[in-house]
Amino acid sequence: MLTGQAKLFTPCDRWLPLRWMCGNILWGYSPAEARQVTAIASFHHPHGYAWGYIRFSQLVYHTGGRSETVIELNLRHPGSNDRNVTSGHNWAIFVNPVGHDAAVKFFTSRCTAGGYRWNPDFIHLANPNAHDFYNEQCSPETPLRCEIGDLSGRLGTIDLGQKRVVMSDPNLPLDCQRQLLPGQHPLDGPEVGAEQNP
């Protein structure tokens, strides 16, 4: 993500020890034309199973339009010396906020207070209980066939313990009636979430 970075322009002649100009790389908008909406899913529970954050940012224009949502993932396993890397974690947005069960020991009971995946567009693909059919149809290649809250289906699974990752989603609204706030953002276990069913 380049936003917030600085850029330095120097003279073409390398022998001149001068700096011509510098500036910050920011969102290209005026406050009179848009506002930035930011949301953060924080994973900092002292007894949690992940450490870090997922930041969502989007520009909402006063004319009603909006930019793609930029998603920054910076997640690892807890503990200052934990360098484990696990891959294939499902991730999703659920309809309810985090409850008391966010860090319980038994993984089958973890994050059940979240309810169901956020689905404001009512994607059902013929039979809402046919999970195999849904999993065949929903993929990063066909994201409009996925529930909006099914981020692993629409964007792919994520890894914990790797470098920071930045991606974008054109169909994830952070404002208005279909916004994702204040939903829960659970992460499933490695290898495509064998610990939690959709």
Short description:
With 198 residues, the protein is mostly beta strands. It contains 3 helices and 8 strands; from the N terminus they run ββββββααββα. The protein has one domain: Immunoglobulin-like (Sandwich).
Account of the 3D structure:
With 198 residues, this protein is mainly beta. The chain has one domain (6-193): Superoxide dismutase, copper/zinc binding domain (Immunoglobulin-like, Sandwich), CATH 2.60.40.200. It is 8% helix and 25% strand. The strands form three sheets. It has a four-stranded antiparallel beta sheet, with no helix packed on it. Strands 1-2 form a two-stranded antiparallel ribbon.
How many separate structural domains?
A: 1
CATH superfamily: Superoxide dismutase, copper/zinc binding domain
In the CATH hierarchy, what is the architecture at level 2?
Sandwich
Report how far apart the termini are: 31 Å
- Give the helix/strand class: mainly beta
Please write the CATH class name.
Mainly Beta
Largest β sheet strand count, sense and barrel closure: 4 strands, antiparallel
What is the string of helix and strand elements? EEEEEEHHEEH
Percentage beta strand = 15-25%
GO molecular function, one term: metal ion binding
GO biological process, one term: superoxide metabolic process
InterPro entries: Cu-only_SOD (IPR053257), SOD-like_Cu/Zn_dom_sf (IPR036423)
